[in-house]
Here is the input.
Amino acid sequence: MTDARRQLVVATRNEHKLVELVGRRRRGNCTARILRATARAYVISPAALGGVGADPASVKDRFSAAYLLAVERVASATALRGLYP
Here is the structure.
């Protein structure tokens, strides 16, 4: 990831209040900002995971978030295949 892209990602997270500034650390002529997540957990859309999501058959706990996300990913992919043959 390039420096410009990294700065854009951090700025976007900061703009949406996903992270907060907790301090600054100076090393030489560079100042690093120390950020902390504002939530204990985040919900990620199955569409954002793409092909890296878990396979429902490989998840043992059928009530876990991982299993539910995997099932949603498979259902979304199946629905999209029906829309775009």
The mean pLDDT is 79. Helices lie at 3-15, 46-49, 65-83.
